[in-house]
Design a protein that fits this description.
By secondary structure, the chain is an alpha/beta fold. It is 32% helix and 18% strand. The chain folds into 2 domains: 41-315, Spore Coat Polysaccharide Biosynthesis Protein SpsA, Chain A, CATH 3.90.550; 359-652, Spore Coat Polysaccharide Biosynthesis Protein SpsA, Chain A (Alpha-Beta Complex). It is built from 22 helices and 25 strands. It is found in: Golgi apparatus membrane. InterPro entries: Glyco_trans_8 (IPR002495), Nucleotide-diphossugar_trans (IPR029044), Xyl/GlcA_transferase (IPR051292).
């Protein structure tokens, strides 16, 4: 397997099971870079789908929090989990952590012949094929379910491998429920097991010895034989592991039960610990998860919530006495930052441009079926916690796909999750991608957020909006028709949706252009920013729009910042602009420089809803240095434009810029 020093995602082809691997080195290392007393600990986890990808982060945080060793995670994933977790680890940049991905879809044929009633589905059987999936030179591995929380250093569990004797190849904790005793209900017929059986939420696997005893053949023959009478598994891989152990008890080393305290109902888990210091690993192995019956469940729940809401950025710390090998990405970042002048009054602004924000794509379940006509449009926006209340309204106004970047802390991400799960409107929509960018630094990285949301657009076109705007009813279909009518596919066009605003919290939203015009005349609506910043939208030419029945072209003018629909491959936003000021102006200037044509749609509109001023606009208004730095960044951007576009960019230099 390729162990190159190259950081981030490195493709290599795996010899066994033809598995494609993605390798991520967050400060990579060789197997024992920290000496024999600090071995690299290998952890394998099967993870598929959006929910498991979210759950596994809490497990990873709990392991990282306590660890003092280098770690190597081996994720067996479907394409969804691979996309989410590879992006997450890339942007997390944790030192002395390495990640590999193995394609679960290529392993399905190995286990798809086994009928399984367990809620984990086909992925619940994949731990059986780890000897075949993981690298041949990997001798031992700790295998974990995604619903595990560590309360101690995982190195303590790794040390248990030294206690294996003779033919012992599996380390397992006894099952703490009566399931395998077969007395839970009348006619309950479990798979064969040794006594109470063993739970496979935590497994120590001696891979090299397992291969020698022909594990692959052993479990297959056992499964085939038992399925003749049992017909299907009830507890996925656990049933098959137990049936093999029943026949070959010498294979198992019984781990003390505190290495897998099982918190499903009807368990004897309380016999595992006398006090808190006994607790090592908690396993939420009930579909009810945190609502399970256990007299100490409050303590366990608090431990779990600690890691759930823990700031993952704090886990980027270097290990003492275990320097990670030079990691090119991290080194490049340090070099770039070291070149910045810390005495520059705008240092913090410049630094933000290079900050790598930990990012969790598709935080909630997502489903999108591409339309056959290629004209589909995704609404793109970004928000922080204080704008969550806009989501339901936007979903009611826009039925098409939406890509949102949310700027949240770890604790806020959990609040958002609870809010979304409690909302019928949001839960009723599968075509909204929620991408959580975790907070770091003192600015709101507005353009980074926009870029993250844009990068996850799955349609050919995108409508670049803001979270405080409600699109008119029917805008989604109108934009799709305009794509075809204006032949946007074969031209460089930015379709302008005229923007209006109301100062009323309870607005009777206009159902048509005629209604909008009458509200405009009555003073219930205004053209957007009419009172404070007319230049931003003046080129839209609202006087012409009032009577227009066909689309019309407008020319770029200084400080123009309309809301536009463009092709997916349009330029991204410039990250140097953070917080308030010039973040959209610069983007529209870029579109103009690249010779996009601005076309105003005669029957489209969007309305800005009132809200309290954002923290960043308050800073802009009250902090002189903020305004000075913004002016400096603007000038640098304009110089950059003139270098890139030469004579054509002269108009951006000479345009009066008093924003």
């Amino acid at each position: 397997m390729a162990h190159g020093g190259q950081n981030f995602l490195q493709r290599s082809t795996h010899p066994v099971g033809h598995t494609n691997i993605l390798s991520y080195h967050g400060g990579g290392h060789q197997t024992s870079s920290c000496g024999p007393n600090w071995p690299t600990i290998h952890v394998a986890i099967v993870c598929a789908g959006y929910n498991a990808s979210r759950d596994v982060v809490t497990l990873v945080k709990s392991v990282l929090f306590h660890r003092r060793n280098a770690l190597h995670f081996h994720f067996i994933t479907d394409s969804i989990a691979k996309q989410i977790l590879s992006y997450l680890f890339n942007s997390w940049m944790v030192p002395a952590v390495r990640v590999n991905f193995y394609d679960a879809d290529e392993l399905k044929s190995e286990v798809s012949w086994i009928p399984n009633k367990h809620y984990s589905g086909i992925y619940g059987l994949m731990k059986l094929v780890l000897t075949k999936t993981l690298p041949m030179n990997l001798r031992r591995v700790i295998v974990l379910d995604t619903d595990i929380t560590f309360a101690t250093d995982i190195a303590e569990l790794w040390a248990v491998f030294h206690k294996f004797k003779g033919q012992q190849v599996l380390g397992l904790v006894e099952n703490q429920s009566d399931w395998y005793l077969g007395n839970l209900w009348k006619n309950h017929r479990p798979w064969p097991a040794l006594g109470r059986g063993f739970n496979t939420g935590v497994i120590l696997l001696l891979l090299d010895r397992l291969r020698k005893v022909r594990w692959e053949q052993m479990w297959r023959l056992t499964a085939e034989r038992e399925l003749m009478s049992m017909l299907s598994t009830s507890l996925a891989d656990q049933d098959i592991f137990n049936a093999v152990i029943k026949q070959n008890p010498f294979l198992v080393y019984q781990l003390p039960c505190y290495w897998n305290v099982q918190l499903s109902d009807h368990t004897r888990s309380e016999k595992c610990y006398k006090d808190v210091s006994d607790l090592k690993v908690i396993h939420w192995n009930s579909p009810k998860k945190l609502r399970v019956k256990n007299k100490h469940v409050e303590f366990f729940r608090n431990l779990y919530l600690t890691f759930l809401e823990y700031d993952g950025n704090l886990l980027r710390r270097e290990l003492f006495g275990c320097p990670s090998e030079a990691d090119p990405n991290s080194e490049n970042l340090q070099k770039t930052l070291s070149e910045l002048d810390e005495d520059d009054p705008c240092y913090e602004f410049r630094r933000e441009r290079f900050t790598v924000h930990r990012t969790h794509l598709y935080f909630l379940h997502y489903e999108y079926e591409p339309s056959s006509d290629q004209s589909d449009v995704t609404l793109v926006a970004q928000l922080s916690m204080d704008r969550l209340q806009m989501l339901e309204a936007i979903c009611k106004h826009w039925e098409g796909p939406i890509s949102l970047a949310l700027y949240l802390s770890d604790a806020e991400a959990q609040q958002f999750l609870r809010y979304a799960q409690g909302s019928e409107v949001l839960m009723g929509r599968g075509n909204v991608g929620y991408h959580v960018v975790y907070k770091e630094g003192q600015f709101y990285p507005v353009n980074l957020l926009r870029n993250v949301a844009m990068q996850q657009v799955n349609t050919n076109y995108m409508f670049l909006s803001d979270i405080d705007f409600l699109p008119m009813y029917g805008l989604y279909e109108y934009l799709r028709k305009s794509v075809v009518q204006l032949d946007v596919a074969n031209s460089k066009k930015a379709l302008v949706v005229p923007a209006f605003e109301t100062l009323r919290y309870r607005l009777s939203f206009p159902k048509s252009k005629a209604e909008l015009l009458s509200q405009l005349d009555m003073g219930t609506l205004f053209t957007f920013r009419y009172h404070v910043w007319t230049k931003g939208h003046a080129p839209t030419n609202f006087a012409k729009w009032r009577t227009a029945t066909t689309p019309y072209k407008v020319l770029w003018e200084a400080d123009f910042e309309p809301y536009v629909m463009v092709k997916r491959d349009s330029p991204e936003y410039d990250r140097r602009f953070v917080g308030f000021g010039w973040n959209k102006v610069a983007h529209i200037m870029e579109l103009d420089a690249q010779e996009y044509e601005f076309v105003v749609l005669p029957n489209a509109y969007m309305i800005h809803m009132p809200h309290a001023p954002s923290f960043d606009i308050t800073k802009f208004r009250s902090n002189k240095q903020y305004r000075v730095c913004l002016k400096t960044l603007k000038e640098e951007f304009q110089q950059n434009m003139s270098r890139r576009f030469g004579f054509a960019a002269l108009k951006y230099m000479t345009a009066e810029n008093n924003s």
